[in-house]
Amino acid sequence: MKTENLITVTDFCLYHNVEYDFIDHLQEAGLIEVTIINQTTCIPVDEIRKAERLARLHTQLDINEPGILVIDSLLDKVENMQQELAVLRSRLRLYEG
Prior knowledge:
By secondary structure, this protein is mainly α. 67% of the residues lie in helices and 11% in strands. It has 4 helices and 3 strands; from the N terminus they run βααββαα. The chain has a 3-stranded antiparallel sheet with strand order 1-3-2.
């Protein structure tokens, strides 16, 4: 993996004002993936958006890690339902036309 596609956890934590342990908890819960390169823990760029969303829930709304797990699960379900609804609407248009 190229290092330009990674952000160190330390930089992420400083920028988003979260504890290093917060990222550890997210990783242990399977919410985000981290990579270790040269003994430095990094977050892949494609995981940053999700990590930022979860960090905002924690810092701005003061939601603890168990609450974040529940919210993330619900948001995933909502996203899946929206995709399914789009597919169903597309199918319905075939019959309406």
